[in-house]
From TrEMBL:
It comes from Ameca splendens. Residues 39-139 form the Sec23/Sec24 helical domain. It comes from the Eukaryota. This is Sec23/Sec24 helical domain-containing protein. It holds the Pfam family Sec23_helical.
Length: 150
Protein backbone atom coordinates (compact mmCIF):
# COMPACT_ATOMS: atom_id res chain seq x y z
CA UNK A 1 0.00 0.00 0.00
CA UNK A 2 1.20 3.46 -0.87
CA UNK A 3 0.32 6.54 1.14
CA UNK A 4 0.66 10.18 0.09
CA UNK A 5 -0.17 13.11 2.35
CA UNK A 6 -0.72 16.57 0.92
CA UNK A 7 -0.74 19.53 3.27
CA UNK A 8 -1.92 22.88 2.00
CA UNK A 9 -3.53 26.14 3.05
CA UNK A 10 -6.79 27.32 1.47
CA UNK A 11 -7.33 30.88 0.23
CA UNK A 12 -9.03 31.76 3.51
CA UNK A 13 -5.97 30.66 5.52
CA UNK A 14 -7.46 27.36 6.69
CA UNK A 15 -4.91 24.51 6.89
CA UNK A 16 -6.01 21.27 5.24
CA UNK A 17 -4.54 17.81 4.91
CA UNK A 18 -5.52 15.41 2.15
CA UNK A 19 -4.53 11.75 2.38
CA UNK A 20 -4.35 9.55 -0.72
CA UNK A 21 -3.88 5.80 -0.45
CA UNK A 22 -3.24 3.31 -3.21
CA UNK A 23 -3.34 -0.44 -2.88
CA UNK A 24 -2.01 -2.62 -5.68
CA UNK A 25 -2.41 -6.33 -5.99
CA UNK A 26 0.69 -8.49 -5.94
CA UNK A 27 1.05 -11.90 -7.45
CA UNK A 28 3.21 -14.82 -6.51
CA UNK A 29 2.78 -16.43 -9.93
CA UNK A 30 4.47 -15.15 -13.07
CA UNK A 31 1.62 -16.43 -15.22
CA UNK A 32 -0.81 -14.02 -13.51
CA UNK A 33 1.47 -11.17 -14.48
CA UNK A 34 1.48 -12.17 -18.15
CA UNK A 35 -2.27 -12.73 -18.04
CA UNK A 36 -2.79 -9.08 -17.10
CA UNK A 37 -0.35 -7.61 -19.64
CA UNK A 38 -1.75 -5.47 -22.41
CA UNK A 39 0.16 -4.92 -25.64
CA UNK A 40 -1.08 -1.33 -25.92
CA UNK A 41 0.19 -0.45 -22.44
CA UNK A 42 3.58 -2.03 -23.15
CA UNK A 43 3.85 -0.10 -26.42
CA UNK A 44 3.18 3.16 -24.56
CA UNK A 45 5.70 2.28 -21.84
CA UNK A 46 8.47 1.36 -24.29
CA UNK A 47 7.69 4.36 -26.50
CA UNK A 48 8.06 6.80 -23.61
CA UNK A 49 11.15 5.00 -22.33
CA UNK A 50 12.89 5.01 -25.71
CA UNK A 51 11.81 8.51 -26.71
CA UNK A 52 13.04 9.94 -23.40
CA UNK A 53 16.41 8.24 -23.85
CA UNK A 54 16.84 9.27 -27.48
CA UNK A 55 18.68 12.46 -26.52
CA UNK A 56 21.25 10.60 -24.41
CA UNK A 57 21.95 7.32 -26.23
CA UNK A 58 22.71 6.27 -29.81
CA UNK A 59 19.65 5.23 -31.81
CA UNK A 60 21.04 1.80 -32.71
CA UNK A 61 21.64 1.07 -29.03
CA UNK A 62 18.05 2.03 -28.19
CA UNK A 63 16.59 -0.16 -30.94
CA UNK A 64 18.68 -3.12 -29.76
CA UNK A 65 17.68 -2.50 -26.13
CA UNK A 66 14.01 -2.46 -27.11
CA UNK A 67 14.34 -5.70 -29.03
CA UNK A 68 16.28 -7.34 -26.18
CA UNK A 69 13.74 -6.27 -23.54
CA UNK A 70 10.78 -7.65 -25.47
CA UNK A 71 12.61 -10.83 -26.46
CA UNK A 72 13.61 -11.52 -22.85
CA UNK A 73 10.04 -10.98 -21.64
CA UNK A 74 8.62 -13.37 -24.22
CA UNK A 75 11.38 -15.93 -23.54
CA UNK A 76 10.54 -15.71 -19.84
CA UNK A 77 6.88 -16.42 -20.64
CA UNK A 78 7.85 -19.40 -22.78
CA UNK A 79 10.22 -20.78 -20.15
CA UNK A 80 8.09 -20.30 -17.04
CA UNK A 81 4.46 -20.14 -18.14
CA UNK A 82 3.96 -22.17 -21.28
CA UNK A 83 2.37 -25.46 -20.31
CA UNK A 84 2.25 -27.14 -23.72
CA UNK A 85 5.28 -28.64 -25.36
CA UNK A 86 6.46 -26.51 -28.27
CA UNK A 87 9.22 -26.87 -30.81
CA UNK A 88 12.48 -24.98 -30.38
CA UNK A 89 11.81 -22.25 -32.96
CA UNK A 90 8.12 -21.71 -32.30
CA UNK A 91 6.97 -18.30 -31.08
CA UNK A 92 4.66 -18.53 -28.07
CA UNK A 93 2.76 -15.42 -27.00
CA UNK A 94 0.33 -14.76 -24.17
CA UNK A 95 -3.24 -14.14 -25.32
CA UNK A 96 -3.22 -10.37 -24.88
CA UNK A 97 0.24 -9.85 -26.35
CA UNK A 98 -0.49 -11.18 -29.84
CA UNK A 99 -0.10 -7.68 -31.35
CA UNK A 100 3.07 -6.83 -29.39
CA UNK A 101 5.60 -7.87 -32.09
CA UNK A 102 3.80 -5.68 -34.63
CA UNK A 103 3.72 -2.72 -32.22
CA UNK A 104 7.39 -3.10 -31.29
CA UNK A 105 8.40 -3.32 -34.93
CA UNK A 106 6.46 -0.12 -35.67
CA UNK A 107 8.18 1.59 -32.74
CA UNK A 108 11.64 0.39 -33.82
CA UNK A 109 11.02 1.75 -37.34
CA UNK A 110 9.52 5.03 -36.18
CA UNK A 111 10.96 8.24 -37.56
CA UNK A 112 12.42 9.18 -34.17
CA UNK A 113 14.33 5.91 -33.64
CA UNK A 114 15.18 5.25 -37.29
CA UNK A 115 15.65 8.64 -38.91
CA UNK A 116 15.41 8.79 -42.65
CA UNK A 117 16.20 11.40 -45.22
CA UNK A 118 12.61 12.65 -45.39
CA UNK A 119 12.61 14.44 -42.03
CA UNK A 120 14.91 16.94 -40.38
CA UNK A 121 16.20 16.89 -36.81
CA UNK A 122 13.67 19.57 -35.89
CA UNK A 123 10.78 17.53 -37.29
CA UNK A 124 11.91 14.43 -35.40
CA UNK A 125 12.21 16.39 -32.14
CA UNK A 126 8.76 17.87 -32.67
CA UNK A 127 7.31 14.41 -33.30
CA UNK A 128 9.10 13.09 -30.21
CA UNK A 129 7.61 15.80 -28.01
CA UNK A 130 4.13 15.27 -29.48
CA UNK A 131 4.20 11.48 -29.01
CA UNK A 132 5.49 11.76 -25.43
CA UNK A 133 2.31 13.64 -24.55
CA UNK A 134 -0.09 11.06 -26.01
CA UNK A 135 -2.20 8.68 -23.97
CA UNK A 136 -2.26 4.93 -24.58
CA UNK A 137 -5.01 4.84 -27.23
CA UNK A 138 -3.51 7.74 -29.17
CA UNK A 139 -0.04 6.17 -29.01
CA UNK A 140 -1.36 2.94 -30.51
CA UNK A 141 -3.14 4.86 -33.29
CA UNK A 142 0.05 6.79 -33.99
CA UNK A 143 2.24 3.71 -34.40
CA UNK A 144 -0.22 1.30 -35.97
CA UNK A 145 -3.33 3.10 -37.19
CA UNK A 146 -4.64 0.20 -39.27
CA UNK A 147 -5.14 -2.25 -36.40
CA UNK A 148 -8.83 -2.07 -35.51
CA UNK A 149 -10.57 -4.05 -32.74
CA UNK A 150 -13.37 -6.30 -34.01
Amino acid sequence: MSLVVLSYTSQTGERRIRVHTLTLRCSRHLQDTFRNYQAETLLTFYCKKMYCAVLEHPLQELREELQTDVTEALASYRKHCCSSSVSAGQLVLPQFLRALPVYVNSLRKSEVLLPGLRSSVHQRLQQRCRVLGLDTCSTVRHFYPLLLPL
